[in-house]
Structures are given as C-alpha cells and as structure tokens.
Amino acid sequence: MFKNYFKIAWRNIKRHKAYSAINILGLAIGIAACLLILQYVSFELSFENFQVNKASIYRVQQDRYDNGKLSTQWAAGAYAVGNSFKAAIPEIEDYVKVVDNGRVTTEVKNQPLKIEKVYFTNPSFFSIFTYPLIAGDKNTILKEPFTAALSETTAKKIFGTTNVVGKTLQLNRKDNYTINAVYKDAPVNTQLKPNLLLSYATYLKFTTDSAGNGPETAWEWDGCLTFLLLHKGANPATVEKKFIPVVEKGVGEDMKKYNAGVIYHLQPLTSIHLYSHYMMEPGENGDGKTVYLLLAIAFFIVVIAWVNYINLATARAIIRAREVGVRKTVGSQRGQLIIQFLSESAVLNGFALVLAVLIVLIAIPGFNQLSGQQLSFSLFSDNNFWLALIALFLVGVFFSGLYPAFVLSGFKPIEVLKGKIGTTKQGALLRKSLVVFQFAASLFLLMGTVTVYQQIQYMRKQSLGINIDQTLIVSPPIVGVDSTFLQNITAFKQELQQKSSVQNITVSTSIPGEAVGWNAGGIKLVGQDESKQKQYRVIGVDYDYLNTYELKIIAGRPFDKSFGSDKHSVIFNRKGIEQLGFNKPAEAIGKKIDFWGDQYIIEGVAENFHQQSLREAFEPLILRLIPDVNGSISIKTSAANAAQTISSVKSEWDKFFPGNTLEYFFLDDHFDEQYKADKRFGQVFTLFTSLAILVACLGLFGLASFTTLQRTKEIGIRKVLGASVGSILNLLYREFALLLIIAFVIATPLAWFTTSNWLQNYAFRINLQWTYFVVPFVIIIAIAFITVSFQSVKAAIANPVKSLRSE
Question: The whole model's pTM is what?
C-alpha cells in the first residue's frame, strides 16, 4: 500500500515539474540555511562542554566601585581572592589561579621561537579543568618553582617529540624551567588555550618581597583569573553571599577609607563565552544576543520554505479536487487520502533534504570564511547533525503537508464532480496570512541588515580623535631585556629618525585598538580627602607620543623636553579631568595629583579619543610621561614609503636587538580587527536575509502563477470588454500590494524594537532613521512586483480569444 502511495506521489511530482521544482528548491535552500546556522549556533553553545566538571566550575568576576559608582569590571580580579575564599567557605572544593604572562621566546636550533598564550598557574589546573595528560604525573605537576607544562603542539615545535618530561626549557635567554608534563592541545571551543603553563610558585618568587608581601595577600592588585570548583549540590548564590564577610575582613577598612567598594560574582564556566566581556578576558568571546538572533533567522527561513509548500498546495486545491472526488467515489477513505498527500510531502521534502545536504557540502568553505567558524566535513559524522536533519525532515513533512492533506481530503465528491467546488474564504485567508508572514519576516530581516550595516559603517568612518593612519607598530623585544635595553631602544629610535621615510616615532605602554592594561586606583588631587580617590587607566608615553598620534590639546601644553620638570608631569583626557571634578579643562592645569605616593603636575588636557572601538565608552585616561618607557614602538610613515620604512626597521632591529624576531603590523588594520566580529555578523545576517527573501519570492512566484492561471477566463473577458493591459496589471498587483503593506505594518515595530535593543551594545551608535525601514520596504515591494510580473504581464498581454477558448 505504501509503495502505491509513493508511486502516485512520484507521478504527481513528474507531472507538475514547475510546481515541484519551486517547492524542492525553496525547501532545499531553507533546510541548508537552517543547517548551517544550527551548526554555527551549536558551536557557539558548545564552549566548555568538554570539561568534565563544567557544571561545578565558576569564575570569580570582580566589580570595583568609586564613590558608590561602578568604575571597572574585571574578568581577572584581585590575587588574594582564590586562597582567601577557599580557606573561609566550605562549599568550595578547590580553586585555580591563572595569570597571563603574555609571550615568551625560546631557541630551537639557534633560532628564536616565540610562544604565545603563556600562563602562570597552580597544580589544581589539571584537576579542575579537563586537559588530558600525554606525559607527566598529575600529582606533581607545577608544584615547584621553575617547572612547566607544555601543550602537545608546543612540545613538538621545540623538541620534535612529546617525550620531554625532565628536560630543561630556557625562556627569554635567562630563566630555566624543568618540564614535568605534556598535555593535549585545547579544543577550539574553550576560552583558555594555553600553549605553555608555568608554575604559579615561580610567579610568587618573582613578585613576593623579602617581608613576605606578595600576591597571596593582595586585594587591590588585579590581573588574576580565579576559578572555583564547588562541591556538588552547592548553591552559587549562597557562596556569593559568603564572599562579603571575607572581603570585608581582607580589605574592608581600606575600602571605606578610600570610599571605594568591590563586589565579587560567580560566573558559570559555560556562560563565559557568550555573556562575558570584561577587562582582561583571556580570549575573544562571542555574543549571546547574536547567536540567538541567528537562531531566529534559521527558524524564519525554514518556516518560510514550509509556508511556500502550504500556499502552493492549497492554491492547487481546485486542480486536485476532481482527483479527490474520483478517489472518494471509488471507495478511498479520508485517512487514506491524508496519507497519500503526506506521502507527496515526504517525497518532496526528501528530495529537498538531499539537495540541502549537497548545498551544505558546497557551502562549508565559503561559510567558514564568511563567519569565521571552523566547520568541516567531519560534521557529517556528528550525530547531532543527522538528528537535526531528521528533525527538519519530519517536522517539514507534517508542518508543510498536514494542512493541505486535510483540506484536499475534505472535499465532497458530489460537489467536486458537479464542478461546484471553488476557492473558500478560509483557504484564501490562510494563503494571504501566510504571504503576510513570509514578507513580514523578510522585511524584519532586511531592516535588521540595513541597521547592522549602518552601525558598522558609522563605527569605521567616525573620527577617532587620534590619527592612526600609516602607523607601523613594532612589538617590543623579548630576548635580551636587561640593563642595556633602555639604552638600545633610545639609540634605535634615534637611528630610525634619521631615515627620510620615517616621519615620527614614539614608544608607549599601550597602543590604540587595545584595552589599556595599566589600571591605577587611588588617584586624587593633592590635599583632598582619601575618600575622593578615583580610578584611572594610565598610558606610559614618551615625549613624542602626542605629536605622533596628533592628539588635540584643549588646555595647557604637551610634554616638552625643554621643561625639566616634565618627568613629573601628566596629561589627562577630558573625561579624566571631569572625573576629578573640573567643569572646564583649563581649571585643571597646574594642579597636583597624588599618584601612588608621588606627586605629579597636570600640564595638559587632551580631547577625548577612542582608545578602543566605538563599542566602548570614553574612559578616564592619564598620559604619564616616562621618557625611557618600555612598550610598543609606533612609527609614522607615508603610504609611498611604507616598504622603505619596513626595510629600514628590519636593518636597525637586527643591529640593536639581535636574537629577536621583528614583529610588526599596521595600526589601522589592527584597530579594524575590533570590528571583525561585527562585520562577520553583518555578512552572515545579510547572506541569510537574502536567502529568506529568495525563498519567499520563489513561493510568491508559484502562487502568482496559479492565481493568474485561475483568473485566465476573467482576464480574457475583461480584455474583450475593453480593459487595458495597465488596468489588468493593476488588478493583479493590487492584492499582493495590500499584503505587503500589512507585512510592513507588522514588521516595522518589531524591527525597531529589536534593532534598538541591539544598538544598546554600543556606547557610540547611530540613531534609527525612518529610511532604515522604508528603504527595505521599497526593495521588498520592487522584488515582489518583479516576481509577480513574470506571470501577470504574460497573462495581461495574452490574446483573450485563446484564453476563453482554453476555458
């Protein structure tokens, strides 16, 4: 019996090739787009799932307050947190500290090798986190000073093998570490991807003074990632409350004295990737809103495809009515007819499914490049992929086929065979409602696309208040950083300044495009009460910084070598002096500030500038003069001489810093990297919006074809009675235009609400304009009219004699 159902279904598909092709192509595009988005979303939601203890691991997140106002939020907070909380709170089973050590170098065959993502950590790292060991004893790893653990790839790069336990690793030509473990490389779906782990005991050796003062008792020394492993069944909210008396005991008196505050929160490990964007995050995080918005797009696209099937199936009801009448007359039951029509839906969805898999196969490389994902053909061996595929097939068969099956199987044979069946008001209303849904969804997505594009363009074109054009950034040397370094960097600058291709050169602790790592609390005007202390970000700069970056001084003067006192001078940005309480920049000039026990004079005020992307608000900044500062080297050149400048830098670099690999990049490219995630989101959004519109238009084309076919006789009569082509086209267009207007009315407030919320993520953002909503409507209505015109124009200009004869 089922064989007969599918045989008849196949015959119907072959007999109506255009109708079948539209359905199969629309369903295939919808399913393929949905599968790609689901894989993207699945990857973003999979972060830290490999961790065995994931449900019990929490990161301690720190909020600092000044005068009752939130000042900074840290992923890496105070060093004393882990050991202090563990000692006082029984719900904590264990803790681990992770301190970023930046990059180091070693030598392989007398050639320097740079190692990124190097961290100090304590032995609990391997008992809390799941980084399987290839070699080494879990009970002895990283317990002693100057011990290290290598990732598998790092071990092979340095030694050519993973059999390295007991060997010595020299870093930066001065410190020797004994390797006591090799671990498997971290998977891509984790925030922490260490290439080299150094014992936290080593860090304590470097940072604890002779009196025993060091990180373990430091409550105001930030920069330590702390993860807690809670006992099973422990309530995180209860644990958070127990932080308060521990903090009060450790630093409460000092906080009160400075009118400051600090609050610690527990972040579930699995939520960090999508919902954490704090200071000193160890890796680039995703965006939960973006992920779920893309999930909504996947839903829209596949539902639009299913709606096409329903629309076309019900539109063809009159054509199929006689078939149903005959079948019922010869004894077919309604249940059998329902199965027959569901079988047709299953065959069509089956073909669409095969085509969708082929589309996914072809699209994976391009989608990876567009989205920045790392999907591979191995996803076809993933059970979740096939479960999603089967789910889409089953839901598609029943969602798209069930209603048409009930409509078609419900026709009464006597009325059908007498020719009394016609289009019902209910059926017409359903089709119109579904068309409105399709185009409301398409309009919503297109309005969102326009807003995303405008915001990205605004951020990239907005004046930064600082000139980053044609700026070559050279990373500071690592090897040989000793007492001769400062002398060498000064001589290096002087040599480069002699080159005609170099316009300016400066050294600073931070460069535009990255968060300022130097965070200074306790800043106040001399003579003020300690309760007035504020927190600032500080950039250590040399004399040439302001000139090189063309910062605008709005009060006072820049640093000047002719003023011997400038070594004790600072320059604030406008936001910085406002935080000190000055309404006018000029009022701050000449005032003295307390800066960690020393006094500095405010010599100038610079206009606010964007140190980071426009997603971030202006921060209170201090530019502190350090003539021999150790940091990144910024070299201003011209477009015509960029290659010559790089050649000169290479030549001088090898002379002054032998054994160091020259690392450089252009600042405008580096700054633009901050918008990479936004641009990728915009590209992905645009792609799937286009696919949604394409699928909707496929359905509209098919629906217009059948609607026009049903009105062939009416059009012929109108033409015989003198109707013009224009009036007939107006008749055919009017119905679709009304539906699109209704879709616009529905989509606009939804799009406005959604895009307004999305823009709240940006400190500097566009104002929503009416054009962002009207232009997409004009585009959609133009596309829809072009789609309808393929059949409407053909019907309007047809010979009425042929139309009436065919009837």
Answer: 0.81
